[in-house]
Amino acid sequence: MIAAQYFDGMTAAAQVVTLTLDGEWLQLRGEVLAHEWPLRDVKVSERLGDTPRRIEFSDGSHCEVTDHAALDVLLKQGGYRSSWLDGMQHSMRWALLSAVFIVLIFAAAYRYLLPLGAEVVAQSIPPKMLQKMGASSLQTLDKLMLEPSKLAPERQQALRAAYARLAALPDAQLAYRIEFRSAPQIGPNAFALPDGNIVMLDELVVLTQDDDEILAVLAHERGHVEQRHALRMVLQSSAVGLAMTWYMGDVSSLLATVPAMLVQASYSRDMEREADEYAARTLQLNAKSPCLLPDILQKLEAAHAKRQAEARKENGGSVMDYLASHPATQERSALLCPAH
Amino acid sequence: MQSQQEHAFEFTGKGWEYFRIWIVNLLLSILTLGIYSAWAKVRRLQYFYRNTRLAGAGFEYHGTPIAILKGRIIAFVLLLAYTIAGQTNPLMAILIFVLLAGVMPWLIVRSLRFKLYNSSYRGLRFGFAGSDGAAYAVFLLFPILTVLTLYLLAPFTHYKIKQYQHNNSRFGDTFFRFDATSGNFYGIYLKALGLLVLAGVFFGISAALHMPVLMLVLPLFYLYIAGFLSVRLPNLIWDKTGLGEHDLYSRMEVGKYLWIAFTNLLGIVFTLGLYIPFAQIRMSRYKFSCMGLLAQGDLAEFVAGQAQSDSATGEETAEMFDLDISL
Q1: Domain at A2-86: CATH code
Q2: Exposed/middle/buried for A219, CB within 10 Å: 0-12, 13-18, 19+?
Q3: Cα–Cα distance measured from residue A53 to residue A169, given in angstroms and rounded to the nearest whole number
Q4: What is the rounded CA–CA span in Å between residue B275 and residue A270?
Q5: Are A246 and A121 within 8 A, CB to CB?
Q6: Contact across the interface for A13 and B122, Cβ inside 8 Å
Q7: A126 touches chain B (CB under 8 A)
């Protein structure tokens, strides 16, 4: 016998009743009430914590029961089966398991879905926007860390001409130009702006006598631009920014973060490999050896190691390292020109 | 004059108990790409309604997941249409925006009807009888006028919205009433504005004195203003709301509210969101502990005399759906 409160659904008055099970019939008895219902026509609300359970009858009246244990016994006797969710919603083990699952799902989304989304969004940014981003990035960099190039104008012109002669791969989407700058505190480096312009630092140009090696670096940077690596990294770094860019079509919020991204250039190893491969294909197209890139990379590595050693000697600090994120130079060299 | 009886609301939800329900339903919602969230919402509302108790009885939520799913699909389609149109053709976007603004009041009325019809206390349903015409004035005309008057009309519009909502709500066959004046709303909004001006003056002084440290206090100012509005407005609205001859009240305090809101935020941040169910329970417990009903005479007698309203027929509700619009 279960104590319950009965509401007739017509007025708000509550009546105290008792419930008993007689075969397949649920008997309801109160001071002035006597009803019986087949148990299968009765709707019993699912368990929800300690909240009262409702037993709804077909005429719109209902009972509220707070004695959970007694009701469970009665329902079991009547062959009433609770939903599969009932146990899960009330067990601590399932709660913890769910928490673990949810964390795993978010981690997987972060690892796999975010880069995928970043790639799709980065590829769909219109060229006009890329130009704007490139121009504003260069402006910021000029203000903060770049100085005018000290290279002779003839040397600049020669390199520009050589670069102009470098045939682009058929799927290339952007026009390319070189911007010569100097940045003693960065060291030998080159980086690609989102619009296809490539900033070439004097410190890198003086590192080699072979213009083809410089072309190899340019081809590598071109790979980064064509595959939108910088933009992908920026988009990946913030899921919120990615969602905003995707939904609003607004890239202006990204503008501020691009310059820092370009200089730090912490591309993933996969991205470096993609850019390397792009450079190798470009060099082959122009009948040049793919080994040019490893050659200049080794020189870069040596120059940076030297700079770092000097910096450490001077003030214990470290300089920004062009090669920090690059796969080991030897490994890349082996991939690019096995005969080397 | 009959004697007044005070009946306080009580919220009996428990953090850990709700956490278990919440997290299992969250997992299912994620795994079904959001579809199951309609079922999760029904459970959440049922849990909160049933744990909200007044004079020995709890409330009940009757909405069905399918109706909620319908509403979500409608909202999703509207948003999608607006987004796609906005990206392809600006003229089309304006057209869709006007169209959306045009149907919004109609949708809000359906949503309010759904929400109230699907709420009950002691087996009697609530109901909403607001007309579409009045809804267009309150949800479209006044907001437009508000923007045109540079928000001078904002407190008045807020007042009209609440008046429309509460005057048209009923429990059984007894209507609620809303006795506030637009002056009450202007009073609170002006005080908040005063605090904002004070914050500006403070900012000016700290800038003039070259003491940027003082500016660190500024966020606290804004926090206080936000808390002030989230406490004083509901207090006013419920204090001036009655059911038949009975009065409701709400006596939240800004300090206590802010403390709970702030510690809730910290909890949520430091547990990566796992504290959310606990935070919701805590806030509900506080809000309802400050609310109650002042009954003229015997509440039990009044309640027993309440009858289901005739207009709450099934036909009217069959086509209904819920939209997640919180007002």
Answers
A1: 2.30.29.30
A2: buried
A3: 70
A4: 38
A5: yes
A6: yes
A7: no
Contact A89/B307, CB-based, under 8 Å?
Answer: no
- Number of residues written out for chain B: 327
Spatial contact of A269 and A222, defined as CB atoms under 8 Å apart: no
CB contact under 8 A, B20 and A50: no
Interface test with B, best of A50, A65, A84 (most B CBs within 10 A): A50
pLDDT digits (tens, 9 = 90+) for A10-46: 888 889 999 999 888 999 999 888 999 998 889 999 9
Quick check: A72 and A13 in contact, CB under 8 A? no
> Which burial class, exposed, middle or buried, applies to A238 when counting CB atoms under 10 A from its CB (0-12, 13-18, 19+)?
middle
Identify residue B85 by its one-letter amino acid code.
A
Are the CB atoms for B311 and B260 separated by under 8 Å?
no
Give the three-state DSSP class for B194: helix
Domain range summary for chain A, segments of one domain joined by +: 2-86, 106-336
Distance CA A35, CA B220 (A): 61
Tokens matching residue B211: 């003491």
Q: Give the ipTM.
A: 0.80
Tens-place pLDDT, residues B98-136:
888 898 898 888 888 888 989 999 888 898 999 999 999
Residue A187 in contact with residue A319, Cβ under 8 Å?
yes
The model's pTM is 0.79
A9 CB-near residues (< 8 Å, 6+ apart): A59, A60, A61, A62, B123, B124, B308
Beta-carbon contacts of residue A334 (< 8 Å; ≥ 6 apart):
A340
Of A11, A64, A92, the CB nearest to B20: A92
- How many angstroms separate the CA of residue B323 from the nearest CA in chain A? 22
